[in-house]
Write a structure and sequence with these properties.
Layout (H helix, E strand, L loop, with lengths): L2 E8 L1 H33 L6 H43 L3 E5 L2 E4 L2 H39 L5 H5 L2 H39 L8 E6 L2 E6 L2 H29 L3 H37 L3 E4 L1
Antiparallel strand pairs: 1-2, 1-6, 2-3, 4-5, 5-6
Helix pairs in contact: 1-2, 1-7, 2-3, 3-5, 5-6, 6-7
Length: about 300
């Protein structure tokens, strides 16, 4: 049996700092791998391509600096706002619920998990839609200028430009969030269902929590192996489910072998990548927690 706890709120600053720092470290590791690959490419280039070696070296230096820094800054923005949205939405629609058995997450109720995560994604889609819609007048002005200067036929450029701009803005501001909500709701519902299926058969995540006061808890550490094993298997099965239509299409087109091989390879790649990334994420969380503060949340 498990005890259902609801995450009512999350402290914004500790969450943002921790997640963006881990993302930056993982980005730095990824940059090192990319530099290694670039170095291999530079080493095997024929002599006639020697002038491009300096370009490749410069690209490597830029990657190792810009990629982690950019990832950290984006993580600060997205982490801060995402948790802010979460804390605002919880009193209205409820938060993520966890079926806890001691320190093990034995069950994730599907609807609460899918609902709030997909709503947050829909809000982000709305923000991006607004930004892109705001750029439409700029594009419209460029086209209008081109028409007035004779670069393009004025009738073709100006005839339907106003209506197209309005329709485009409506699609971006209204349609994009709706589509994002529907698809993300389905995706996260499937993830929760898969997680609940494998936890009783293979593995389940663990969170080592300590009570701070009342209903406030601190995530002191995340056991690495259970997290990596559970998340990697969950997303491997998730990949399998959503790759079935593509495999069926390949079989219908007479490429059954290629479809099956592609399905298997995709599952294996997802399993490996998610295992490594989750293991590293949990490891760095445990390493950083005593140094930069743990993630804190209320469980009721």
């Amino acid at each position: 049996m498990f005890d259902v706890k609801e995450i009512r709120s999350v402290k914004i600053v500790p969450y943002t700092v921790m997640t963006s720092t881990i993302s930056a470290i993982l980005a730095f590791i990824g940059a090192l791998i990319m530099i290694l690959l670039l170095g291999i490419v530079a080493a095997i280039l024929p002599p006639q391509f020697a002038p491009y070696v300096n370009l490749i070296t410069g690209a490597g230096i830029a990657i190792i600096v810009l990629y982690p820094v950019g990832t950290f800054l984006i993580g600060i923005l997205t982490g801060f706002l995402s948790i802010l949205f979460y804390n605002i939405l919880v009193p209205r629609i409820g938060g993520i619920k966890l079926g806890m058995n001691g320190d093990e997450i034995e069950n994730i109720p599907v609807i609460p998990f899918a609902l709030i995560t997909s709503l947050i994604i829909a809000i982000w889609a709305f923000i991006f839609g607004l930004i892109i819609a705001a750029l439409i007048p700029l594009l419209t002005g460029i086209i209008s200028t081109a028409a007035l200067t004779g670069a393009v036929p004025a009738s073709a450029a100006l005839g339907n430009i106003g209506m197209a701009s309005i329709i485009g803005a409506i699609i971006l501001i209204i349609g994009l969030p709706i589509i994002a909500f529907i698809f993300s709701f389905i995706a996260y519902a499937v993830i929760a269902l898969v997680y609940n299926y494998i936890t009783v058969r293979v593995s389940r995540m663990k969170l080592e929590l300590s009570r701070i006061r009342d209903s406030w808890f601190s995530i002191e550490s995340i056991p690495v192996l259970p997290a990596a094993l559970t998340i990697s298997i969950t997303f491997a099965i998730y990949q399998f489910i959503f790759s079935i239509p593509q495999a069926i299409t390949s079989m219908a087109q007479g490429a059954a072998f290629e479809g099956i091989i592609g399905l298997i390879v995709g599952i294996i790649i997802n399993l490996i990548i998610y295992f490594i990334m989750t293991a590293l994420g949990a490891f760095f969380y445990n390493f950083l927690a005593p140094k930069i503060d743990t993630i804190k949340l209320t469980l009721e």
